[in-house]
Prior knowledge:
Strand order of the largest sheet: 3-2-1-4-5
Organism: Halpernia humi
Strand content: 15-25%
CATH topology of the largest domain: Nucleotidyltransferase, domain 5
Radius of gyration: 25 Å
Protein name: Transposase, Mutator family
Function: Required for the transposition of the insertion element.
Largest sheet: 5 strands, mixed
GO molecular function, one term: transposase activity
Low-confidence stretches: 1-6
Order of helices and strands: HHHHEEEHEHEHHHEEHHHH
Helix content: 40-55%
Structural class: alpha/beta
Distance between the termini: 35 Å
Number of domains: 3
InterPro entries: Transposase_mutator
CATH class of the largest domain: Alpha Beta
Number of strands: 7
Amino acid sequence: MEFFFTQNRPEQKIRNRFIWFKKWALERQTYKTLCRDSGYSKDTLQRTFYKILESSPVLKIIKRDHVNLRMDGTYFAKFCLVAYQDNFDGYTQLIRFTDGEHFEEVKEDLTNLLLLGVKLESITSNGDKSVLKAIKKTDENIIIQRCLVHIQRMCLIWLTKFSKHLAGQELRKHVLILLKIKTHNDRIWWIKNLNLWHEKHKDYINEKTINLETQRYWYTHKFLRRSYFTIKRALPNMFHYIDNPSIPKTTNGIEGYFSHLKNHLDLHRGLTLKNRINFIKWYVYFSNEK
């Protein structure tokens, strides 16, 4: 019979309990469940987890060719997390903690990814102006794919469900089938009908309301007009996925990732700001190991 002895050094204790930290961070396991399965008390596990959260892991950037990236930012109480994720397997190549999606920071991140061997073929984005500008300034050859779900979602907010005018009703129906476009013929038909809609209703969407006292004016049907021009401006970058199926047409994958992360973090509301940030780094690190 062989006997294995565990050294009693503090760092060894931390290593022995690391598996429970991983379950706590990644699998949404509560202290009650962890105490039952590990045999440790809640106080012991808490001390161990907070000790681990004093530091954070280094995320590894993997050299890859023909990378179709999806990028997005999500907001927490005191910071914004921007993530760059490979659509092939969901591997998160890079994250940044900041206060928003800024041109200089996004450009710096993309430049670093390229320098470290991540050869970007496309980037799917929600269409923030700073992000679009940063992509173009980094490398004009990177294909920009606009997130169709984001375009659809915004238009459906502006186009009321029970529009009184035919123009709003028709455009809403057209926007609702946006995600069903799969072929070049679908794309040609969809754009053709959008143009026909505009030709039919252009006088209506250009109607203005004038303040007789100040002579200032504004567009009467501003939300309808905004919906149309949002689509019109995005149109050149809406359908690259038809030519290359590896390009994601939405950022749903990374939005789902953010949602799971927030659900995990919500279980641990008592963490300090530093520990919340380090928790996110560990979560991303563990997720990349899958």
